[in-house]
Amino acid sequence: MASRPVIETIDGYRAQAQAAMQAGEPERAAAILGKAARLFPNDAALWNSAGAAALRAGKTPDAAAHFAKARERAPQTLEFAVNHAIALGRLGRHGDALTVLGAHERSGVRDVRYCSTRANTSRDAGLLKDAARWYDAALAIDGSHARALHGRARVALERAETDAVMRFDRALQRDPGNLELWLGKAQAFEVEGRNQEAEAIAEALVGQAPRWLAGLRFKAELLMAQGVADVAAPYRDAAARAPQDPQISIAHCALLAGIDRKAEAAEVAANARRRFPELEQLALLEAIYAGEDGQDERAEAIWAEFQFQSSTHQLHEARHRVRQGEPERAVRLIDSLLQADRSNVAGWALRGLLWRLLDDPRKDWLHGQEGLVQFLPLQDRGTIVPQTIEALHALHDSSCFPLGQSLRGGTQTRAGLFDRYEPIYEALHRAIIRTLGDYRAKLPPAHSDHPLLRHRDDAWSIAGSWSVRLAGGGDHHTSHIHPNGIVSSALYLEIPDDIDAPGEPGWLEIGRPPPDLRLELPPLFTIRPQPGHLALFPSTLYHGTRPFDGARRLTVAFDVGSHPRGSDASIGIVAI
Known about the structure:
The structure is a single chain. The protein is 54% helix and 10% strand. The protein is α+β, with helices and mostly antiparallel strands. Among the domains are: 6-174, Serine Threonine Protein Phosphatase 5, Tetratricopeptide repeat (Alpha Horseshoe), CATH 1.25.40; 374-570, q2cbj1_9rhob like domain (Jelly Rolls). The protein is globular and about 80 Å long. The model is unreliable at 567-575 (pLDDT under 50).
């Protein structure tokens, strides 16, 4: 049999792909190796090479498919499994990646690349305890592994471990020029109350990298914690030093809007529009913030001038139409939004208000069904609540008012409360999961069109967790929603002593519109707080807390996410 021409041998294709890479053509290199793999479909190493080339070219779905074929042909090869997991992780399929890695644990535990990848994947999946374990395994093999040192330090910060600063120092010894590590060290200092040291690092970061938005936000957070009125100063200084970067102004707008300075946010957007007239996003932001500030004519002029094409546009123009007394136009915008994205929580929340405003009978189907809003006793509350109260007050004593949240006064804990290393938070997490099971059991039947009930029988997990401490004298939550979950919550630990006074101070209101919509709709539900009890309700319902004067109010809150049972995302989570 005659041999193939050189170009049709595996080595020939590899040589051609290498030449393409050297010429700066990664996409052509990926195409060459992809073709070669299809011509020699039983060569596992060639599929692996095709996957690596596709990953370098930014063709991640192709890379994942190629690595899968390599694994099919050589299922015991650790390298192919790790590569496949990396590609799956870049696609956000962290559960699938953990499944691939889990099949190789016995051999992988001795391989630093496996351990580091397993740790990174666990962290991306929100499994911080597992991530810490696998970073430690990687460092036991190679104590100078840069990515493992960085990842382990970040996990220590996210879990509030007491040695976080030391871990960032170790990572910085290996990679002293890494800005992310310096930011992490500053954040760890701030958690420990070493504010002057945190401030010094933050000042250096914004000085060296004025365009780095994460550094700017941290600097602003420190100013807020210090009670400085001008928390936006770092953004103005950065914009002056890097006038060619519109992202600084966009982030500046978001900061101002998050602390109820909507008029200033609109002005920042308008000034940026003059410098970057080609960026329609800036016009959209000016319209949004001007409208929320009550500058209706200014907002109307922008909505009339531009034909934005985005879900953000549809949502916020619909809000503008509500303010203008044009609910039918608002409904058309929201219907279009939800037709394209039926999971858009903010869209469903506004649709619910519009259906109430128009007395559409579907309003009862959406939010009025019995069982959607429940107030339940926390499982094991007699044991868990006293310990949780003591632990949380210690946290709040070193916490501050958060930027961009619904709080008006008070403090909020950092990071994920249930990710912390202390055993009491793990016990609280378990009790909440059991109580969520009670909630699910009393829900109405599943319904494929309902924003919550279509997830009724899916796997649920906690998608975020925090604690809020409000004090008397007017502290409250403004009416808001949590757009990243399906169920929202409030677990009451301590309540104000004037809870039964006229006006129901400190009570939870569910279903009252946010003030900027100017709708005179009452709440659908009001709940009198009770220690050790958990309010649960669809995330598509606006909710807030009435101001109060007496003593303190201490709560824990979290969001619930959903994943189809047996799907990628449901693998490895603490399912409810």
